[in-house]
Amino acid sequence: MMSNRRKWDQYILFFAFVVTILLYGLLVHLVAASQHVRHSPDPAAMRPIVYGLAGLALVAAMGLSFLKMPHASTPAQFKSSMVLALSVAGACSIFGMLLFFLGGPSGEFPRFQIATIAVDILCILPQIVRRQE
């Protein structure tokens, strides 16, 4: 049985990572609204690469959540695996910001944001809940 403090630590970490993804969206919105962004031509050549890397990050995060997190033998190993999975999932949103700063439309960023939060909630959070039981 896990101590109450450890339970809360894991949920606090999880929600901190989710809030970070939301803050990335706010940053993209504020920068787009300020009109101080020098837009290069549409990054057509980079778009498939960025989407591919974002997808790869999400698949890696799902792999970590299903293959590594359930088999952690100590709470410290579980927390490390959880932080790693959340960080790798967060890379998807960072790739979305990269596309925006390369000249992509700001309206494209929510796709990356939603995908990241979906993996966090559907793959990583259930592992945390299972570990608490």
Describe the structure.
The protein is mostly helical. It has helices spanning 4-34, 47-68, 75-101, 109-132. α1 (4-34) packs antiparallel against α4 and α2 (47-68) runs antiparallel to α3. The longest helix is centred in the first third of the chain and has 31 residues, at 4-34. The chain is elongated. The termini are close together. 27% of the residues are buried. The mean pLDDT is 90.
Are there runs of 5+ residues with pLDDT below 50, and where? none
Quaternary structure state of the chains depicted: single chain
Give the topology string: H per helix, E per strand: HHHH
Report the span from N to C terminus: 8 Å
Percentage of β-strand residues: under 5%
Radius of gyration: 17 Å
**Which structural class matches the secondary elements?**
mainly alpha
The number of strands is 0
Helical fraction equals over 70%
Mean pLDDT: 90
Number of helices: 4
Largest sheet: none
Shape: elongated
